[in-house]
Amino acid sequence: xxxxxxxxxxxSCRYKVYDASLHILGREPLPQAILDHLPxxxxxxxxxxxxxxxxxxxxxxxxxxRSELSRELGIAPASLGFAKxxxxxxxxxxxxxxxxxxxxxxxxxxxxxxxxxxxxxxxEKHRVxxxxxxxxxxxxxxxxxxxxxxxxxxxxxxxxxxLWTRKEALLKAIGTGFSTPLNRISVMDGNIVAGQWRLxxxxxxxxxxxxxxxxx
Length: 216
Description:
Layout: E1 2-10, E2 13-19, H1 21-24, H2 32-36, H3 40-47, H4 52-73, E3 81-84, E4 90-94, E5 100-106, E6 109-115, E7 119-125, H5 132-139, H6 142-150, H7 156-174, E8 192-193, E9 197-201, E10 208-215
Antiparallel strand pairs: 1-2, 2-6, 3-4, 5-6, 7-10, 8-9, 9-10
Helix pairs in contact: 3-4, 6-7
């Protein structure tokens, strides 16, 4: 894997974006060292995924998560234990830590964000979505919808994913799933949302959009 981008946004949040195309596209097999980082239950869970590319994304995402957290905490990757919060968001359970994290993958790229406060990251490959218009009406605010219209037909897809990754990163940071009404929270008004969430679009590969959000 290649490191595409890495940045410390402030003292509270840092992220990395990895290019995993060699493995996801099947040009190189997964090294045994990566598989050795993961416990049997995680390998079994990933092994149940039928699609080879999606299975590879799952394994690499778990590997990156364990590698980055082990580096932060100074313990072996296989020693990390995880639990799920009230809405299913993963948390560290062993060792118990206030460190928060989030992982996202799409296409050939995997992104991770780590912070001492609640954090969410999203990366999306630009692609045709059948019900994009319905998603706009269901999840976008009026100012976001207007901005999307004004972006022009030729920019409609990247503009849609710019908004969607910001929405998704914020949603993942809040950690309440789709119970949070996204059509009532605009991601257009600067980088502070609802008074407590920092939100930034970040550098993404060509044909992708990405964003990260964390509690300030």
